[in-house]
Amino acid sequence: MKAAGILKTALRVLLGLVVLVVTAYFALMVLAMYGPRLSGGTRGKHTREHSHFASQFKAGDTNSPLLAMDWFSDHGVYFCRVSQSGNVRSARDVGHAIQGGSGISSRFSLDSTNRPLLEAAINALPPSSSKSLSKERRILVSGIRSNQWFARVYDRANIPAEVEKLYELTGAYLGWFIPVVSGNRIAHSDLGNYHTSQAGIDSFFAARDVPVAVSAGVNGIQVWDVKRGSVQDVLSLKILPSTQQEGNIAAISPNGNILAVASHCAVYAMDLKSRKLLWSAGPLEHEGRYNKHLVIGGDKGQFLFAAGAHTLKRWDLVTGQKFAVLASNQPTIKLLTTSRDGRVLLAGFNDDSGLGSSAASFAVWEADKDEPARRFVEPAISGSGISADGRLIALSTFGRRDLVLYDWRAERRQEVPLRVPYAAGSAYSMFWSPDGKRLAAYVDTYPASIVVYETTTWKPLAQWRCGEIMAHSEFGFDNSGTLLHLRDHDLSRLDVATLRSVGD
Q1: DSSP conformation class of 95
Q2: How does pLDDT run across 30-57, given as a tens digit for each residue?
Q3: For the chain, which domains are there?
Q4: Each residue of 244-289: pLDDT tens digit?
Q5: Which are the contacts of 26, defined by CB distance < 8 A and separation ≥ 6?
Q6: Global pTM value
Q7: b vs e for 80-97, b when ≥16 Cβ sit within 10 Å of the residue's Cβ?
Q8: Are 464 and 452 in contact (CB under 8 A)?
């Protein structure tokens, strides 16, 4: 009996141990699954660190940082730490790893120059944002200021310049909060090749004074009625001779009446209302598919500017009379555009003199003049645009998150921050709205996006994830200031005038 009792007791103990182990196992599983959520996860850890650093400082611990900065996104927590000895470290914490790709990692020591600059920037910090902010919009900044601990919260949708200065000095990655918006489709074309992508659009040109646009590419030449949401196939009219489906570029007059086309075979102009060919001329010199450019300018839209690979000419749009050769024997002409008022012409060239093979040279003409009013050179340009009044030229440089604004009349150059979404760098095609208050830029995100900026503060107002658009003009503003975007067989629009910074 005694032995049986001992055996029962041993079994109960063993069963209790098994239950305890199983319970502990499931408790650990639940803790692993839900613990990070209950504690705030990686975000919660970084938020609590700021309180911990404050306690360290008050206790006299020199391990408390001179500066701590954190902001949150779907990609993780972007953090920056500057020790009291001046060591700087920044990266991204995704919970299971510390990542440093896409230019988000920095590790160096402050020297006798940038240490005082950083301390001055800390002392210049403004008060915290007065608004209640979602986690995704918060920037937490704390540290030592005049031998006192400080803590601030700022808005990623309206980042003070003083806070941007901190990130500039530390090399930490700072991303503005940019609301994502959607355009709406206004027209669809059943014409052309359904197996093509956006790369099949060679040109897109919106008329200045009426709601009409023209596109050219593998789907042919199509005139889009923006107001009615309809599209017309020009090639089906059988008016333009010797014009193939592909390799064409097109432009349209300000009043939407005259269409200019450059194919591999010739340059043509036709009256869209009477459906008559106005004139034709020989082909533009071209190298491959893309080295042809057509734009319409002049205050009344009376000039056609046509460029081949190395030569630029000004013609009368209605008669085809050649007025002048503006440039010849040039390095490859890479871009040609006019201001919205038609009074200023901008051309960009590849240039291997002075700044290396990646440099670009530019020339600016008043539309009715034969000689350029200004020439200038910039390195490694990825994209450009000209303001509606022709005064400012916007230039984006490969690998830099800055936008160069060049006032060619005053010969004044300035740089402003190009605030782009995560993992984006340069901007490509850029267009000013007719009132000059907005600038739309294609930026190299994936999928591709157009970011709309306010042109006084250069704050990003919205990100339109509109799919793949290439380096040519597949978007632009119509006469009402609405942003148009053509992709494949669909034309969409976005009313940029209604966009406001969510941080204002």
Answers
A1: S
A2: 444 444 444 458 999 999 999 999 999 9
A3: 41-170 (no CATH), 180-498 (2.130.10.10)
A4: 667 789 999 999 999 999 988 899 999 999 999 999 999 988 665 5
A5: none
A6: 0.86
A7: bbbbeeeebbbbbbeeee
A8: yes
